[in-house]
Amino acid sequence: MKKTSILLFAFCITLSAYVIAGIPTVVYANNSAAYISDISLPAGSLVAPVATAGSGATETQITANWNTSVDALHYHLDVSTSIGFGSFVTGFNNLDVNTATSYNVTGLSCGTTYYYRVRADNTCNTSSNSNIITYASAVNACNCLNTITDSRDSKTYNIIAIGTQCWMKENLKATVYKNSVAIPQITDNTLWAADATGAYSCFNNDCTTNGATYGMLYNLNAVTNANGICPT
Asked: Would you state the pLDDT for residue 45?
């Protein structure tokens, strides 16, 4: 018969664990009284959880998933941009996620490959690392870019993805079409109204100040001109 004695000073109780007829049993000895009860002793070791495929990728988030490990009380998650885990995503180095078997990893970069692994633990043991899962955040309609440079004049514009489309966040300032054909500038209201081929102007006809600040004003014929006006 194997015996282990543990002193619980806070309660002035001596706790002895025995294996009686193959059943783990605890004997509580308090002064002259004794009580016997069955217990479940922790396993000698923990099997590492199995990490499963990531899910729910957006431009800034992925969800890490894994299977349960018997006797685990907590899971600890690592996330990195390096398969060797030489560095970690901020906040995701041995992150205790309690008993969850999935976790949303937020604050990520668009279109980036990430690696995650997980460990299990309880009051007595910590498992080895799980297998490593490779999973990437999503690529948006702007291909994860925040700016675009117009090859016609080297002007740079801020852009933003809205749904499945990529939009400029500021007005165009081009004075030529995509094929470098010049867009006529018209400052006369009568000529502007009569134009049938395409033209641009500026607020108060001041393209030096207002054009540089607010962009050009194009009529419909310029916008729909076969020469093309929007940068790509």
From this structure: 86
